[in-house]
Design brief:
The complex is a heterodimer of chains A (about 250) and B (about 450). With about 250 residues, chain A is of the alpha/beta class. Chain A has one domain (about 1-245): Class I glutamine amidotransferase (GATase) domain (Rossmann fold), CATH 3.40.50.880. Chain A has helices at about 20-30, 60-85, 95-100, 200-215, 230-245; strands at about 1-10, 35-40, 55, 90, 100-105, 110, 120-135, 145-160, 165-170, 180, 185, 190. Chain A has a 6-stranded mixed beta sheet with strand order 2-1-3-4-12-11. In chain A, strands 5, 6, 7, 8, 9 and 10 form a 6-stranded mixed beta sheet that branches. The longest helix of chain A has 23 residues, at about 60-85. The mean pLDDT of chain A is about 95. Chain B is α/β, with parallel strands linked by helices. Chain B has 2 domains: about 5-180 and about 275-300, Mur-like, catalytic domain (UDP-N-acetylmuramoyl-L-alanine:D-glutamate ligase); about 310-450, Mur ligase, C-terminal domain (Protein-Tyrosine Phosphatase, Chain A, Alpha-Beta Complex), CATH 3.90.190. Chain B is about 35% helix and about 20% strand. Chain B has helices at about 5-20, 30-40, 40-50, 65-75, 90-100, 115-120, 135-140, 145-155, 170-175, 275-290, 295-300, 330-340, 385-395, 410-420, 430-445; strands at about 55-60, 80, 105-110, 125-130, 160-165, 180-190, 215-220, 225, 240-250, 250-260, 260-270, 310-315, 320-325, 345-350, 375-380, 400-405, 425-430. Chain B has a 9-stranded mixed beta sheet with strand order 2-3-1-4-5-6-9-10-11, sandwiched between helices. In chain B, strands 12-13-17-14-15-16 form a 6-stranded mixed beta sheet, sandwiched between helices. In chain B, strand 2 (about 80), helix 5 and strand 3 (about 105-110) form a beta-alpha-beta unit. Mean pLDDT of chain B is about 90; it is low at about 450-455. The chains are: A alpha/beta (about 250), B alpha/beta (about 450). Chains A and B meet through helix 1, helix 2, strand 7 and helix 5 of A and helix 13 of B.
Amino acid sequence: MKLRVAHLYPDYLNIYADRGNIAVLTQRAELRGHSLEIESVGLSGEIRSSAHDLYYVGGGQDREQALIAPDLAAKGSALIEAVLGGAALLAVCGGYQLLGRGYRGRDGSTMPGVGLFPHETVAGSTRMIGDVLLECEPVPGERRTVAGFENHAGRTLLDGGAVPLGRVIHGHGNDGESGFEGCRVQRAIGTYLHGPLLPRNPWLADWLLAQAIAHATGEDPPVFVEVPDELAEEAHRVAAARAKSRGGRRR
Amino acid sequence: MSARIRLETMAARAVGHVSRAAGRGGGTTLPGKLLWKVDPRAVDQLAARLPLGVALVSATNGKTTTTAMAARILAQEHRLTWNRAGANLLSGIASALVSSDGSELGLFEVDEAALPEAIARTRPRVVSLGNLFRDQLDRYGELELVAERWREAVRALPDETTLVVNADDPVLADLAEGRQSVLRYGLDDPRHARPALQHAADSKYCVRCGTPYEYAAAYVGHLGAYRCPSCGNARPDLDVVARDIELTGLRSSRFTLATPSGEVRVELALPGLYNVYNAAAATSSSLALGSSLDVIRAGLEGFSAAFGRFERIAQGAKTIVILLIKNPAGANEALRTLETGVPPVLVIALNDAIADGQDVSWIWDVDFEPVLPHAGRIVASGGRAAELALRLLYGGLPEERLEVVPGLEQALDRALELTEAGGELVILPTYTAMLALRGILTARGVVPAYWDTPR
């Protein structure tokens, strides 16, 4: 089937190789006989809450993020409506921050966010940079790992009761203290991890695709047949080893 | 020179000899590191001894080549001290200065982050700024951070310092605005423009108002003839222009340089538009230091390659060409030189040490796609070979034309085996992979160690 994907602000939010994530989603959908119809939604574009099965929001440099932040905030309610209506979403780094309630700068200034994810981000005095390894439970009882790279000054503080993407095994994570990374709301995932994220964590790409299909069909997410992933597993193994040997340590 | 400085430099120089004798690399920064530690102000005093002063060169891409070109030009008329091995932090500059007895002029390539301090300590006559691209974000941070540091450093320059800027870069043109002594260089040959801005181009929004620029011609990344349709911010008039450019694949380029001192046709033994930019930068700095156009042409035409950048190495009946890649913009230009004739065998080597950038996501911003359909075989190598292999496969490289060989020496030998006699093997390594490959070739006696390269 044809899955409808909205890629938000690709001209502005593309700093951490976001096109790698899109390429993985596209090819893994095709492996299962599906196709992606990707629409770029920019400053003049509109979000219609039922028009897409999967949303993608990448990260940008501060200057580019500031250029789109007011526009994204204005589109926020439609995006929240889409996710509460069962659409899948992946937001990485800056996109993850922008989809929370807001960002408080070191100078006390505030940049309002979308309010999809139950968190607030506060600028820190140092950047948290390095390889990261997470342990996740996408469905209860099923343990998976995610290997990525983080580079953020913001400390993202989850509200009580908020569901993180995973537990930090090596690295800093959301705030360097809590031991958690990312956030999940229904079929939406926000995370600081790039690398890009999906080439070396293909199970996560499959999870997102299955959720997008569930949105499109109104049925349960399908279970995909396995495909050979030796190279991705090797890339994951090396990245996980880097996280172990040089990822930021939790205090 | 004060007695104290003399003693310190003697001690530092001795360390350099010991370091080289012990085979510990080139000893290119060790004496400087020592001096830098003992007395950072020694750099100020050693720089002040140079009767013709100091010129600094910085950029995300091309600073090593630009500096080496300028050195080739300037050394014809002046006794020159320069950091030839690319040791471009303050310690590297200190090292070069330590052995600067009898020199007249200092010429230093400077790391982008180290530029403000290098300016403060060496009080340069000329500062050349080549370009700002996104680069190793885990190390340098965002482009705007570097730009802001440069703005502050330029504001602190005295009026008599000549600022040389690549005016095709909107951020740099803006940074030179209002200064008295500026030389602006750029390209003018729309035949070589890209049809569109490349993927993930930087600085494509107006520095004044944030509106996307319109380009009459975009040459390399976001460098080109730009204009903001909203507020009118546009590329300023150029003082030094490269035009009528002819590129001949991986071999060479020819172009005309129009300058305030007249015009000259130059034949350069380096490929690619990015090297035309480097030549225009070296020309502008040399003009600012008083070189004539004849001397400039002779210097440029006598130039072959800087360390690890487009080195051509004979290995039996085969030729190895090394093109350093370190960030999306630079890698795109290296790949662009291959577009006219992709070699049958290509090695790409991705390491992830601090000097390479620990974050390897940048390879996804490189436009490998135009080259992949034409490459006969690609050997993916380095510590992150699997990651690189994924990138190439997702980019459309058929699996049967990919080999994954993480070990650099094994990858080199495998690729040489695949290369026909008389053929050319092109290697695109990241920085530490380049050093390691050069080390392997040096151990085999194929290339001289870099600290032995002739002056």
